[in-house]
Amino acid sequence: MKAVWTFALARLALVVLLGLILGLFIGPPWLGVVIAVGLYLAWQLRNLYLLERWLRLRSQLDPPTIGGIWGDIVAEIVRLYRRKQYHKQRLAQLFRELRRSTAALPDGVIVLGGQYEIVWFNRRAANLLGLKRPGDVGLRIDNLIRSPEFIRYLHSSDYAAPLVMRPPADTESYLALQIVPYGAGQSLLLARDVTEQRRLEAMRKDFVANASHELRTPLTVISGYLDTLAEDPEIDPVWRSPIRDMRAQAQRMNAIIADLLELSRLEANDAEAPQAPIDVPAMLERLARDALARAERPAEVRLELDARAGLYGDAREIESAFTNLVDNAIKYTPRTGRIELRWRVDAAGAHFAVADTGIGIPSQHLPRLTERFYRVDAGRSRGLGGSGLGLAIVKHALQRHGGRLTVESAEGKGSTFTAHFPPARVVAAITVDGGGDRR
Amino acid sequence: METADLMHHTSRRFNEDLEKVRNQVLQMGGFVEQQLHRAIGALVEGDSRLGEVVATEDYRVNAMEVAIDEECSRILALRAPAAGDLRVIVAIIKTITDLERIGDEVEKIGYIGSRLATMERPADKYREVKHLGRHVEQMVHDALDAFARMDARAALLTAQEDRMVDEEYEAIQRQCMTFMMEDPRAIRRALELMWVVRALERIGDHAKNIGEYVIYMVHGKDIRHTALEDVARQIDAAPGVRQ
């Protein structure tokens, strides 16, 4: 037992004893004891009162100075209170720092609840999206950002890529919005200002388009004179071979510029392609005929039409994409090889596959094939007069039609390039004219 | 918060219905905003194709109006809302009518925009019209924001903004008259432009109406045909509306 308790008990015993002695002097002994215990009780009540008053008005009063067991209790309470105060302060400080750091984030952050209602947002988000504090907490985000494309993005569950859009009531800047789901139905909405990025990108595209356009005129003059020189019978035979080479290279430069212009045209137009019906089977028959007519073609070129279906889209772009795929196959397949073109439709949409028995592509190159000017190896395509832009054009043209390109290849055995189109773009049975006189 | 007060109701289903129809209104508003933005863009940039797209997409606004209208009738018939809830429904029914009219005016701007694209463009490249257009766009945006936030004060500011739009409208009107007097060949274009400016001014009026419905919805006061200064005083005096 602690010393204070022994002391308290001793004090009680002493009080009772004193009461008994007092009782012996003034009357019946029990009266003395009752008076003594009564006084003791009054003293304890006073202490209890002091303690209660202090607890109630703790902020204004100093702790009472009471002796005995009460003093110990007061000391213990003071100690507990100090410790709590300390932890509270530490937590508050931590929270303040956390809030300050999220507020200082360069990106806007909004915490969304299960119904897309705003739970919390930082200052940057408020600036970027025009949110007001604190009134907007609890409102649904799609009530404030009402742009149809955002609503579509929010309700789609595909948040892989951010959505680039103009912020509400601002016509100068661009925002990239990305949703990151977490926990039970909650999500984060991140907003980033990408105006500068977009401007640089636009500048780059403009530059490429302008430069290609400007290069075209001088090149036309050069190839024109080269053509004349090549036909000239009086020219020294020593010059025949150099002129032939120059002509070939001028043609190649022309092809590169044409491809660059085609690519920047596709890029400038990021909207979905139009919905005009295209007679794909007729187009493929024509492509196959053209391939057969070429001098350096592989021995066997086959076309398999498993469907009479067509596509909705831009005929020129689709033809350019398909031509590029067929051209590649011809270029990289030896004379003894075989090329197979196949057009089929299934539940997943329409597919145009070009399979060849050519040299194939090492697998580490596959992911980067559609980058512009990407070369599997330096000599390979240049020697064959490619522009290095063919597959980039294919990719962009397909993207405009909601499609995508897949490549399978085994080195030394051959490659299969397949263009996939979504079912929404497929015309079940094409009945337009022969496809020969578009526009 | 006033939103919570207006939405406070014993029936949870009813609350959900009301919330859903409110969301639909704002979704429709978002689409109308986009249409307006594109129509002005088509006119200013001389993009005839975009103008046609805007004009042909107006049917979607109409379809949304019909759907919301039906939903409102259903709520009225099934739930017989009272007091604040009834005001919300009434305000919604009126708001969608104005949104639908904005859609019609936008359709008009789209048509005229695609027609003007084929004509010679004036030296100022429609700068004034663009400015007026952005102003009106901002008004529609603010009115819908006020609707989403149930913010009577912002709604009032939007309604007051309409005066500025009217002044701008008159300025452009005078300018067009000057153009016509200076150069008779510009008359056709100036007349077409007058239609656009007129449509924009009407859209400003509709945005003002929406702002007024928001005030009605929050405070239960009909402020149409009341001087806006009086309304401001009343809103300030209204108890317990500020957060």
Description of the molecule:
The complex is a heterodimer of chains A (439) and B (243). In chain A, α8 (240-268) runs parallel beside α12. Chain A contains 12 helices and 13 strands. Chain A is α+β, with helices and mostly antiparallel strands and 439 residues long. Chain A has helices spanning 3-26, 29-56, 68-103, 123-129, 141-144, 148-155, 195-231, 240-268, 280-293, 315-331, 378-382, 390-400; strands spanning 108-112, 118-121, 163-165, 175-182, 186-193, 277-278, 300-305, 310-312, 338-346, 349-356, 404-410, 414-421, 426-427. Chain A is rod-shaped, with a radius of gyration of 43 Å. The model of chain A is unreliable at 433-439 (pLDDT under 50). Chain A has 4 domains: 3-100, no CATH class; 105-193, PAS domain (Beta-Lactamase), CATH 3.30.450; 198-268, Signal transduction histidine kinase, dimerisation/phosphotransfer (DHp) domain (Helix Hairpins); 277-427, 2-Layer Sandwich (Heat Shock Protein 90), CATH 3.30.565.10. In chain A, strands 2-1-5-4-3 form a 5-stranded antiparallel β-sheet. With 243 residues, chain B is mainly α. Chain B has one domain (2-237): Methane Monooxygenase Hydroxylase, Chain G, domain 1. Helix content of chain B is 83%, strand content 0%. Chain B is built from 9 helices and no strands. Chain B has helices at residues 2-7, 12-45, 48-56, 58-79, 83-116, 127-149, 152-182, 187-219, 228-237. In chain B, α2 packs antiparallel against α6 (127-149). Chain B is globular, with a radius of gyration of 20 Å. Chain B starts with a helix and ends in a 6-residue tail after the last helix. In chain B, 44% of the residues are buried. The model of chain B is unreliable at 1-7 (pLDDT under 50). Chains A and B meet through α5 and α6 of A and α2 and α6 of B.
